[in-house]
């Protein structure tokens, strides 16, 4: 093929190549008009902002270098990009002591500087623009710090699921990214033992997952009261405690501090931000529903000592009260965590039940003593009224004594015999009366003994239980 032939063929094919050529030149032409609109202050703002967004985010359309959202905007190792974090807590949605979990309605705000996103404000007249940001790089338009809630409850309750808002980009490359979350966390609650006087302490741990501390420096935003920088309640600590919720946040006892996790395998340290949230319980509910009923029932169970042994109510009364206490205990169990720890309320309920059981045992002892005397006297089963035969003998004798004029049953007895039988009747009557009196004495003695025992028990139980309750309430706040 000669040179002329080649030129000819090229000329023939030129019309076919033209669209291709145009396609190649188009980006160049676009760049030209884009940069025109970027710097042309009389162009509409939306055109200028679109142009700015294109110039910082969209590769290919401008001469700006390709923006890789996987790469952090760190300029030098050991000069990490400073990422500040602000946590705004709105309320406690849920707190489960049984499951050691808590859910907070909160906002997070991350701020950092990404030089690659800087644009010229004076040239474009654009004050700020936005870009979609997400912890999922697939969907994010820009790099975001890979910060996660490390002690999240489930995938839905961490930062990632709800970090789906636009970030604001300022001309100097500063990015501000705010999100709303329902943060579900796994907590190791401290101070639980003093239920219901407890102050529960839970921690939120935010840390970077992939970027070590020499690439990303995680810090607290300079907001919030001293000692808890980076944590505010509501917009500006103005959150009103909700009267009708079981748990409320103790703002002035919350703290924040930084920490690190050292990965031994990689020899890398990851920064961590710790938020300590202190929560108090509305204790009146527990006092009214569990503690006070339990104490009242225990005091009532001491009433068993005031009931006469001979009155059959004694055991029934004691056992009914014990059952009522168990009912209160069942109510309490539903609200308390199951653990090996000695909870204040469990100790109170347990010891109160012990007192009630001991009162019952004392009562059984007194009853046993009372019936034992009868068994001893007549060696009959204590379940039969053994006083009856003696009483019958006495009654018979009494009748004989009261009716001396009653006609003798056998007329043919002579006087000596009559006198003799009269004397014998009087004797029988005397011994029967003595026996009866003796038994009455014994019974009264046993009853008196039982009453004395009851009286001492009442004093002792009242004293010891009152001291116990007093000590429990005095030590409630320092229970641990
Ligand atoms: C620049 O702005 C003008 C005026 O709004 C518009 O007609 C033109 O299409 C814009 N340039 C580009 C590349 O969009
Ligand atoms: C600037 O924009 C205005 C309005 O779109 C347009 O009339 C003007 O020609 C543009 N100037 C340049 C230099 O592109
Ligand atoms: C991060 O903050 C520290 C302290 O404020 C500062 O010395 C350092 O220069 C900052 N790093 C960057 C990359 O701006
Ligand atoms: C922004 O553009 C103006 C005008 O072109 C220029 O004078 C200025 O130095 C630029 N600023 C920056 C930060 O690049
Ligand atoms: C990280 O930021 C904090 C606060 O801005 C600063 O005091 C500290 O020096 C920074 N650490 C590094 C390694 O830059």
UniProtKB/TrEMBL annotation:
It is a multi-pass membrane protein. This is Neurotransmitter-gated ion-channel ligand-binding domain-containing protein. One of its GO terms (cellular component) is membrane. Its main location: membrane. Residues 1-31 form the signal peptide. The chain crosses the membrane at residues 286-307, 319-338, 344-371, 455-476. It is found in: Membrane. It comes from Triparma columacea. Keywords: Membrane, Signal, Transmembrane, Transmembrane helix. Residues 67-222 form the Neurotransmitter-gated ion-channel ligand-binding domain. GO terms for molecular function: extracellular ligand-gated monoatomic ion channel activity; transmembrane signaling receptor activity.
